[in-house]
Design goal:
- By secondary structure, the chain is an alpha/beta fold.
- The chain is 35% helix and 29% strand.
- It is built from 11 helices and 13 strands.
- The strands form 3 sheets. It has a 6-stranded mixed sheet, sandwiched between helices. A 4-stranded antiparallel sheet has the order 11-12-10-13, covered by helices on one side.
- A hairpin with a 2-residue loop joins strand 11 and strand 12.
- Helix 3 crosses helix 4 and helix 5 runs parallel beside helix 6.
Length: 311
């Protein structure tokens, strides 16, 4: 599948301070790609370079094989929603969308506006002034504005920031629909880890302008492709003996025991082989299961390691 976003050796400096530092990644068509990092990590700077709003100091960023700073045609295939929804609060939801439909030169604008109001669940409130809307409703209408012209790629900068849990859920569902139903590629700037784990296919984790992790969410939570496995022993005191047996077998890594639970990564051994090793070694097993790490655990681990590298 062809990449629709390509970033290579990208760097950006402000006043001698390097905000984006030699980053490289690509995004394939139809992905929901999460760009993670704390405030000041370089997320928004990267997005602004991709959108052609900032010039890079080094390297390049291409969207749909084009530089959006100079390619008007390619810019027409991109939708953007920054933290500001870009709406007129004195106008109704329908009037807002009809205004943007005219700006984009949409054919049959009233049909497209009605379609988007239904897609975002705002059809029953379409005649009310946007100024009376909740923050979540405004964000949903902002998404409708961003996809008015049916772009190939849509960029979101912290789309659920400041929303209550119910509104966050509604916005997440809309973003998933954009990928699944509409076939759009989504580039998502966020530091909301729960949001990213729920909706993104791949993520890049940024720290001080550098990418510290880049993989599918599935691989990251399963330990970079390895399968995390936890065995609960019938006798908690047998933890040390269990570690010795498993360590000598090969095919496992990151073996540790605590409070009667033995954790490991399955490199080449299968779960039933782990159980056989322990039982044949005289160690009883109460329970065994695969265990995935949360994205939050992965993120905090990456941040901690990155801080250690810096220091």
């Amino acid at each position: 599948m062809a990449a629709v976003i390509e970033v290579s050796s990208l760097g950006k400096e402000f006043g001698g301070r390097r905000v984006v530092d030699n980053i490289t990644f690509s995004v394939e068509k139809g992905e929901v790609f999460g760009y993670l990092g704390p405030n000041g990590a370089g997320k928004t700077t990267t997005m602004r370079i991709l959108l052609g709003l900032l010039a890079p100091t080094s390297g390049f960023a291409r969207v749909l094989a084009s530089d959006l700073a100079v390619d008007d045609r390619a810019r027409g295939d991109v939708g953007v929603l920054m933290e500001n929804n870009g709406l007129y609060e004195r106008l109704s939801a329908r009037e807002n969308l009809e205004y943007f439909a005219r700006l984009y030169g949409i054919e049959r604008p009233k049909d497209r506006v009605s379609e988007l109001l239904e897609f975002t669940g705002l059809q029953d409130r379409s005649s009310e002034p946007v100024g009376t809307f909740s923050t979540g409703m405004k964000r949903k209408l902002g998404i409708a504005r961003a996809i008015m012209h049916e772009p190939e790629i849509v960029f979101f900068d912290e789309p659920t920031s400041g929303l209550d849990p119910e509104a966050q859920h509604m916005v997440r569902e809309l973003i998933l629909d954009l990928s699944k139903r509409e076939g759009m590629t989504v580039f998502l700037n966020s530091h909301n880890l729960d949001e990213v784990q729920r909706i993104c296919t791949r993520v890049a984790i940024l720290h001080r302008g550098r990418i510290r992790a880049l993989d599918s969410v599935r691989n990251l939570v399963r330990g970079g492709g390895k399968s995390a496995y936890v065995v609960t022993l019938a006798e908690p005191a047998a933890g040390t003996a269990a570690v010795d047996i498993l360590s000598s077998a090969g095919g496992l890594s990151e073996i540790s025991a605590e409070d009667g639970r033995v954790s490991m990564s399955l490199d080449s051994l299968q779960p039933h082989e782990v159980i056989s090793l322990l039982v044949n070694g005289g160690i009883g097993v109460d329970e065994a299961r695969r265990e995935a790490r949360s994205l939050e655990e992965i993120y905090l681990g990456v941040m901690g390691q990155a801080e250690g590298d810096v220091s």
